[in-house]
Each structure stands twice: as structure tokens, then as C-alpha cells.
């Protein structure tokens, strides 16, 4: 039995001793209505926004990634590059896990290696360059990378630090609470998959206790249910305020709308690898002898048929901004060389004919329901626009828990996706969405279209190992140019952040769209 296990047993025994309850006046609960359901509490299983936002309540990381994508100390108080491929991190003293056991370097080593080696490879985009992690002493760790990695600090900010005792634990051990033990602002109380997570304040948190004594995260992907819960005062703050409910919230005496800008880039992906696409047939339903989506002319015709301005204006009700590439102007990697494709259905039909499809073809479009802003409605609109140029379209939407693995694994021919570009530059989305899928290199984990462009892979390798910002800048721009002039992804929009809340609370929206209880404050 390890020292930590013995310590936990002793603490569990102490827990049976009666302790005076806190005065009821100090008990201030908070309920958040989340717009998407996490798939698990295991913080290393899958890197998606709902999973990562949920896990941040229970676990900390070495570095805190702020709402503006800057790196601040968390479990690490300082760090330095020893040389091009070695980073040293000094750990915070006196930190304890929720069960009272001590936090030390062994926990960091176990966590980073677990995230790197997990069969799901959910965090491969962030751990792909980590060769080894070693404990120099109980409060110092060293990370060795394969190549110089300019984004290592950002990468480790994504990885939650669990107890080393749980390094071999199953997903179920986290979901049932056995290993849902962190050092974070809140400790686990209960979890009902698909319904809610309840946590309580960690009064010994090193950064100081939260205002909220108990927090319930309710998973409400249905827009109507989420809005109704806010309007009925059941919930204090909700994510992704439905556009059709804004007037009711604005006219309410005790509710408010909170707006902000996010870094989430929404796109349409396609199967560009298979010779025959599973969900594409001839217009009459007969099999096609080749995959039309492999032809850049077809991909351009599809994009030309989509009235993105109308989608943002009408369907999203201005809760987005039309995008042409991963990042907007002013961010690292935005390229002036990316061709802007205008809405032109007549030209799209001509281009389809030039590509050999004068009668069009049939295509099934897949997407999630309730994961992104108006995702199902957007996909239906895209299907209608495709039909007008001769692409007979069928739309199928699935709950996020069913959809997420399928789209990233390449099960669909045409699909709706999005990526939070929280690094503010282009290697991060390129590694995950566009780079050739390679589990050993950790690239292409969410490359659902099977993209494999040697030029992009070559530029990405250089950009990912170049520390000098002046040398790195043109490489980042080239990633955008190559990706979007080839239309490996069809760019749609950047999502805005729109929340609804009681006037009794205040919140500053984050670029990653996370809603974190410990950042919600009582209104002044």
C-alpha cells in the first residue's frame, strides 16, 4: 500500500469525526447550464471543450491558460528552458489533493505520461513532442521534447494533474468518483452522465476558496430547455444563450445578456482520402465510380454555394463572424494569400459541370445537435444551398456523445466541426485537423477527412520546432495558405460568446468559451 493510500485511509477515518457546519449564510450555491454534455470525467480521455471545461473544476494544470490565452502559474510557480529540448518546472509547495494527500512531482510525471500514452490519444496534439518527464526532486520536474517546441507551455496547460495513484485507473474510476480527486477549486460530490455534475468548494484551495459553496453543472444541450431553466430562475448562468430568447432575457428585470468574442473556428470537413465516399452517390442513387470530394473544383463549388453571410446574419442572429481561415486578421498565421471564396451559386454549378458532375450527385451531411451555435440549423441550411446547385442533400444530426468519435475517426463523408484556436496561432489547429494522421507523431487526431498533404506536413514540422518568432511567422501563414487555398476544410465562421445570466452574477467571457464556476463572481 502506497504512502498516499495510507494517508487517505487516515483522512477517511478523521472524516467520521463531527465538525461544526458552516453558518448557512455562508452557503452560496451556483448552478450553470452547460450547452454541451461531456463524455467522461477522465481528464485525459478526450480533449473536447465540454470535457476540458468540466475537468478544470476538479483538477489543476501546471500552467493556467487564461481566458485571453496567456500562461500563468498554477501548480508550477516558475519554469525555464534549460536548452532547446529540456524545460524545468518548479512546483508549488504545500498543495494537497482533495483527500488530503500531498501533491508532488510524481503526480505530474504520472499525469503527463498518462495523457501522452492513453490509447484514446485524445491529447496527442499537446503531448506529441514529449519524449520523457522526470522528477528532479519532489518539487521539480523536467520535460524533454523531441524537437524544440515553442508551444510546450500552452500544451501542458491543457493537461490536468491527477494523483499518481490513479495513473492506471479506468475511465469508469473517474466517472464513479473513485479517482475524481484533484487539487482544484472544487471537489467531486456526484456525477450523473448526461445530466449533471455536482462539486463542492475546496476551502483549502491554494489560490483561495471560491465564493460558491456548491456548484452544479447541468448539461442542457437543448436550447429550449436551457433557456427555460434560466427564465424560471432554476439556473444562475447559461452558455450559448439561444438567439430567439435574447429579447425575453433583455426585457426581464432580473436577467442579463453577456457577450464576448471566442477563438472557435467552425468548418465543414470532407472525406478526401477514400477513392469511393461512403455517403456520396450519383444523383439517381446509383454508386459513383470515384469520390467527387477529392476534386478541389467540387470542394470550391460547395463553398461557393454557401451563403455564409446569411447564415451568420439570420440563423446565428449575428452570433458569429464569417471566416476564411483558422484565425482572424491580427493573429499569428493569418495569411493575406488565402483566396476569399464568394457566394456565387451560378459559378458553383458551372464548376461542378467542369469537374464532371453536370447533373450533380447525392451527399449525406452529418453533424452534431447542440454542440455548436445553431449547428443542426446551419447544417440544414447548407443542405438546402447544396440542393440548389444540384447536390441532392440529406442531413443527419446526432447527439455530441455519439457524434464526436465518429467524425474524428473519419466515419463520415461530409461533416460539421469546430476547433477552439486557443493558442492564437495556426500550428494548433493544423496539428489536430489537417496534418496527416500519425499516432506515433501525435498528428491528425481529429483529421476526420483523411487529409494528407506532404507540403503542409513539411511546413508544420518546421513551424513546430522553430523558436524564433521572426522565422516562425511566415511558416504559420503558409499553413493557412496551403490549407485553405486547397480547401481541405471549408471555412464557415468564428463563434461569438453569448451567455444569459441573473443580474446577481457577473462573468467575463473567455476566448475558449469555457464557463468556469470559480471565475463567476457576485455582481457588485
Automatic annotation (TrEMBL):
It is found in: Periplasm. Residues 72-435 form the Solute-binding protein family domain. CDD domains: PBP2_NikA_DppA_OppA_like_2. Keywords: Signal, Transport. It comes from the Bacteria. Belongs to the bacterial solute-binding protein 5 family. This is Transporter. It comes from Tianweitania populi.
Amino acid at each position: 500500500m502506497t504512502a498516499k493510500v495510507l494517508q487517505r485511509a487516515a483522512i477517511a477515518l478523521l472524516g467520521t469525526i463531527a465538525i461544526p457546519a458552516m453558518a448557512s449564510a455562508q452557503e452560496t450555491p451556483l448552478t450553470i447550464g452547460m450547452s454541451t454534455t461531456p463524455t467522461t470525467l477522465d481528464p485525459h480521455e478526450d480533449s473536447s471543450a465540454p470535457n476540458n471545461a468540466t475537468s478544470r473544476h476538479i483538477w489543476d494544470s501546471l500552467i493556467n491558460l487564461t481566458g485571453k490565452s496567456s500562461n500563468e502559474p498554477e501548480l508550477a510557480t516558475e519554469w525555464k528552458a534549460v536548452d532547446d529540448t529540456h524545460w524545468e518546472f518548479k512546483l508549488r509547495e504545500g498543495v494537497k489533493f482533495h483527500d488530503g494527500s500531498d501533491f508532488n512531482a510524481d503526480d505530474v510525471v504520472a499525469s503527463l505520461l498518462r495523457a501522452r500514452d492513453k490509447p484514446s490519444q485524445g491529447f496527442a496534439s499537446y503531448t506529441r513532442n514529449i519524449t520523457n518527464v522526470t522528477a528532479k526532486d519532489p518539487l521539480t520536474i523536467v520535460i524533454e521534447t523531441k524537437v524544440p517546441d515553442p508551444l510546450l507551455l500552452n500544451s501542458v496547460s491543457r493537461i490536468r494533474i491527477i494523483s499518481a495513484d490513479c495513473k492506471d485507473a479506468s475511465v469508469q474510476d473517474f466517472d464513479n468518483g473513485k479517482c475524481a480527486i484533484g487539487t482544484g477549486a472544487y471537489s467531486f460530490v456526484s456525477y450523473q452522465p448526461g445530466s449533471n455534475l455536482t462539486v463542492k468548494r475546496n476551502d483549502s484551495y491554494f489560490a483561495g476558496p471560491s465564493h460558491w459553496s456548491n456548484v452544479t453543472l447541468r448539461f442542457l444541450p437543448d436550447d429550449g430547455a436551457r433557456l427555460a431553466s434560466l427564465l424560471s430562475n432554476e439556473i444562475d448562468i447559461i452558455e450559448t444563450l439561444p438567439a430567439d430568447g435574447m429579447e425575453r432575457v433583455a426585457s426581464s428585470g432580473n436577467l442579463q445578456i453577456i457577450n464576448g468574442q471566442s477563438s472557435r473556428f467552425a468548418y465543414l470537413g470532407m472525406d478526401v482520402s477514400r477513392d469511393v465516399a461512403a455517403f456520396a452517390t450519383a444523383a439517381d442513387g446509383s454508386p459513383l465510380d470515384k469520390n467527387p470530394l477529392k476534386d478541389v473544383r467540387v470542394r470550391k463549388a460547395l463553398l461557393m454555394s454557401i451563403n455564409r453571410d446569411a447564415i451568420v446574419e439570420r440563423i446565428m442572429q449575428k452570433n458569429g463572424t464569417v471566416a476564411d481561415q483558422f484565425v482572424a486578421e491580427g493573429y499569428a498565421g493569418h495569411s493575406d494569400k488565402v483566396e476569399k471564396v464568394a457566394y456565387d451559386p451560378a459559378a458553383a454549378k458551372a464548376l461542378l459541370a467542369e469537374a464532371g458532375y453536370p447533373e450533380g450527385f447525392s451527399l449525406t451531411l452529418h453533424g452534431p445537435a447542440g454542440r455548436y451555435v445553431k449547428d443542426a440549423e446551419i447544417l440544414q441550411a447548407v443542405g438546402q444551398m447544396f440542393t440548389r446547385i444540384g447536390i441532392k442533400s440529406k442531413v443527419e444530426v446526432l447527439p455530441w456523445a455519439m457524434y464526436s468519435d465518429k467524425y474524428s475517426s473519419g466515419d463520415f463523408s461530409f461533416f460539421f466541426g469546430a476547433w477552439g484556436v486557443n493558442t492564437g496561432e495556426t500550428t494548433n489547429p493544423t496539428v489536430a485537423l489537417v496534418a496527416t494522421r500519425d499516432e506515433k507523431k501525435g498528428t491528425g487526431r481529429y483529421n476526420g477527412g483523411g487529409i494528407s498533404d506532404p507540403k503542409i506536413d513539411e511546413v508544420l514540422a518546421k513551424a513546430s520546432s522553430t523558436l524564433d518568432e521572426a522565422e516562425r511567422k511566415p511558416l504559420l501563414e503558409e499553413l493557412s495558405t496551403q490549407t485553405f487555398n486547397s480547401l481541405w476544410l471549408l471555412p464557415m465562421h468564428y463563434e461569438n460568446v453569448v451567455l444569459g445570466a441573473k443580474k446577481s452574477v457577473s462573468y467575463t467571457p473567455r476566448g475558449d468559451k469555457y464557463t468556469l464556476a470559480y471565475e463567476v463572481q457576485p455582481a457588485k
